[in-house]
Please model this.
Amino acid sequence: MISENMFDPAHYAKVRLPVLQAETLPSWCYTSEIFYRREVEHMFKRNWNFVGREDELPKPGDYVALDMFGEGIIILRDKSGQLRAFANTCRHRGTKLLQGRGQCPAIVCPYHSWTFALSGELVAAAGMERTEGFDRRRYSLIPIRLETWEGFVFINFDDDAPKLRAYLGNLPEFLGSHCLADMVCVRRNEYDLACNWKIYLENAMEEYHTPTVHKLSIGAQVTVREASTGAWDGMYMPTDHTIALLAEDLDSEFPHIPTLDAKAAHGMYFAVIYPMTFFAFTQDCCWWLQQFPQGAARTKVVIGSCFPRATVARPDFSERVKRYYRRWDKSLPEDNAISELQQAGLSSSLSKPGRLSFHEPVVRDIANWVLDRVLDERAHGHAD
Ligand code: FES
Ligand SMILES: [Fe+2]
Model:
């Protein structure tokens, strides 16, 4: 840990260089709670954060309660079918209202039964009749901005941030032929890991580790960088078959999405949508790795898997999809273990910055995306 101001740009001059000249981030960026709190306030809370799929909340009253960097959030579908996000805190004395996932016709506080409609309005507050000047209409749930793209749901704590579509830049152009709005999330798995969120994201966005870490599962991968505008970075990997199956299971491959354009039909995309979600879009499915940071050195990782509606409707879907799960359940623990090992090494006070390979341009760019938002001179928070 350094004793001087860790947000002084002078510490990071070498991280700012092009990838083949650059150094990695100093270890305190992965271990310091002070650095993490700056990321929360200047980065996570001012940008669009992926929270899940629309199809995970299909009916009015479906809700999920999430914890995002210490903020309790409710995402729900209201009676009119609209998705909404609220702070998970009662307007009476602040109690957390909902937990986990479920279905409710209205939100009833577990403490004194104040009752909120799915639209957020306070509709019942028994016992408040004598309270002077109490106007129920002024005690609705606190709304949070929510926007969607092709069924992917994002929230933003910053009322001044640009709209989601502007934030995503040209990403939708690359994925237009995947018909992502027509996908269904069929599984989510969670892992609680002893590592910083950036470690996990960097790992997901570099191929350098694949021949070593995944030598017994998915093996080496070779990618080319895509030219991105907006708050994402991506790679394209040429391949004629899905990479969501292990090589020995390719006979179980589902039909490819029929609308794919020529490039998408012969390859797949890896993308990070900043600040912290990794996506993989293959010819027959897509999946994401979502980080829920719990502090500097702890991260809940959620892997979600989506398939086209027509694939999910196949009579053999539930049997064949097990091969896909097998692939993720084999490769993910390999990434989990190496990420925790990297965190353990970076926690040494003797650890010093290293250098990067040509395989790791996005590792350099993730570091710089963070620095652009947290350092003293440049803290802003919006998409480039
Ligand atoms: S804290 Fe919610 S009703 Fe009292
Ligand atoms: Fe990996």
Notes: The first strand starts at residue 49 and ends at 53. The chain is about 25% helix and 25% strand. The mean pLDDT is 95.
